[in-house]
Amino acid sequence: MGVNHYENFPVASLLLPPRFRHPVGQIYRFAREADDIADEGDASDAARLAQLERLREGLRAIERGTVPQISGFTELAAVIRDYHLPVDLFVNLLSAFTQDVTTKSYADFPQLLDYCRRSANPVGSLLLKIFDGASEQNLRWSDAICTALQLINFWQDVELDYAKGRIYLPRDEMDRCGVTESNIAEKRCDDAWRALIGFQIERTRKLMLFGAPLGHGLPGRIGLEIRATVHGGLRILEKLERARCDMFRNRPTLEWHDWPVILARAL
Description:
Blueprint: H1 18-39, H2 45-63, H3 73-83, H4 87-102, H5 109-119, H6 121-131, H7 136-156, H8 158-163, H9 171-177, H10 181-185, H11 191-211, H12 214-217, H13 220-242, H14 259-266
């Protein structure tokens, strides 16, 4: 997976039973490629929006029972058909990526949660559909995990997102802690910055732990995959804490030596 919004989702994809790897891979491929349209390269905003609209039209064509001439859509259409996946979940992803092009900051946490509801949560819902585990309770847990993973990626990538003109930290919470854009521009990790990021870490951890029972509610290797994903996200939060909230000089990522710890906790 790429290093953008979906970096933290497939942290344990090799644990999945082989029969699920292709459909799951198609979901991630679509999400990654659409995300790259919004994020990568030097295209104009108008060009990015036009490409995303083309994907949206392609999804609606699949919904109508036809396969558009778009790279990768033949396989995606087959997965949608075979697993009876709601096309609207893919459309929600596109709405979030469209928002990335047009919206550069968020006034408060509810606004950020609404973005996560569309940028991250659909992935978990689609996976549960594939796993035949989309109960109401499982979907609530999945939403919590997916939102937490999205937030973790934001806290990892404050500097990278700022370079693209975006700030995902809630503006009202920045103001409350006495943090301004200059903290990011100057990579200044003072007490105000540590208070702000420390609060984000703790809230994100609580959200992840709320969703963690999903890993025990799904069977076998699927449950193990979910537990490893949860502990991978928690591990990144631990690293950010150890770095004293300085993701500018110590961007937390999962390294080879983290996997024994993650798998031990998952087991």
